[in-house]
What does this fold into?
Amino acid sequence: MSALFIYFPFSKLMHLGGVFLSPTRNLANNNRMVRHVNPWNYPVKVHTYEEYEDEFRAKMIKAHIPVEKE
Amino acid sequence: MADKLPTPAEMKIDHTPPKTGWMDTPFEFRKGTWCYSAKPKSIEYLGFPNPREWSPPDEDWKLPENWEEIIHKGFKERLGKFRSFKLFMDVCVRCGACADKCHFFLGSGDPKNMPVLRAELLRSVYRKDFTAAGKLLGKAAGARKLTVQVLKEWFYYFYQCSECRRCSVFCPYGIDTAEITMMARELMHLVGVNINWILDPAASCFRTGNHLGLEPHSFKDSIESLLDDVEEITGIRVAPSFNRKGAEILFITPSADVFADPGIYTFMGYLLLFHHIGLDYTISTYASEGGNFGLFTSNEMMKRLNAKMYAEAKRLGVKWILGGECGHMWRVVHQYMDTMNGPADFLEEPVSPITGTKFENAKSTKMVHITEFTADLIKNGKLKLDPSRNDHRKVTFHDSCNPARAMGIFEEPRYVLKSVCNHFHEMPENTIREQTFCCGAGSGLNTEEFMEMRLRGGLPRANAVKYVAEKHGVNLLTCICAIDRAVLPPLMRYWVPGVEVSGVHELVGNALIMDGEKKRTTGLREEPLEGVEEDEADV
It folds into this structure.
């Protein structure tokens, strides 16, 4: 018995609260309605429209797709 | 590859667990159960580490010398950044509720495909490196050292998870195995361990805007070739615009809808719908892909690809964005886009120009799902529909994992379907809505060399379709996902021959009564309609 009492506080039984408190269970599904801010959201390297148009401009003009720079 | 596939009768599934413990049970790279490695060209283009020629069955994976250290650092960094990851590593009590929920386990019988054990592959290394008990007690505490063999096991099993999240529905803690798989894949990317079917589309998408790498003129050509088909079938010439500034709405859909059968018929449905209601919209060649294979790569790659949507909406000066039928695109848009690339303060809160309905559910992200948009049109009586044109179809609906479990879109597609066809039958309750079964090839696994595993993973879904096919004579499986439209047809041909696959808007396109149309004798895929005499059809 005593051994069990010593063991319980370190055991997976202590995870019981997680059944009721799990974030994936309790967060509202409102991601498109409300903006959730990510504290470490850092800038990343993107392929910009300018780079895209520079590569394909001639083909776009030929296909009558509007471009920024003729 | 296909000729070596076992027949459905030969596809043995044995759920007897092996006699040895999981850490001591080896696996082998058996043909049909793993995907080809990424080509150096794609890795280099995206600026990822360790581009080289290698193959998963090779003994030597040509890893960087300090690869263990790289993964350890990456692991540590992610545990700090993603609180959910830390929680999921710690909280699992191995109750086993998820074990028989995974379609890959059901179809393969391999215990390491139980979500709990798949996560344990990563968790064991977490224990060894980051917990006191694991460091002290080693194997007795479920910990093990990261070795090349462990890394190979990660590769094998984390590319046998389609990130569908069915297991997480049944987990008492809501552990999201998809997030665990994402983290494992991110860690493997750090040392250059990745698959071609994901990195090649991601690289193409980065450069040209879409997965197949269609350059702007080819993308436009592909859509214009569909216009001829639409005209032939309906007598209506629709005229979409491309990269047009000042349009009210930017329409983005998975590029597969533009060129791949049967997605093209869904695309024709969109075109007819927009023409029918006179929508002021434009299609972009730069943001010409809804799908985002970055989601299957890393959070950073997902953000890099997704950035094009808002950038293009801003450049074109549209009011809001309408998104087509796609699965993982909507997981990204719904759950991550605003956080990663927002705020979209240059756009307006979406309002349907036809019905005046405000889409308050999308007021921050400013992107509306096409089934929300169409369901609203039907609800307000703005569409002229003849559901009897789909009488040759006995329809069921496959909830695609991401719109179902990541978004909660259950009712809209069903409402649309029931309005445009007369014969609709649901599959059994435990295989639809939030409990839906995956197509077996999501998260970038829809490649040919993986076919055996795809068919095994798709078996539970196919079984449910077989049930309604036998009970109600269902002959059409509808879905709102481009990957589904690509992978369900071979799955159906294999397990349930006679059932075709379509998007929801193909049926909408069939049912729409267009002003000035000619008598419809065929559906959008030129299949004859019921009740139309053959001689009439020949006219």
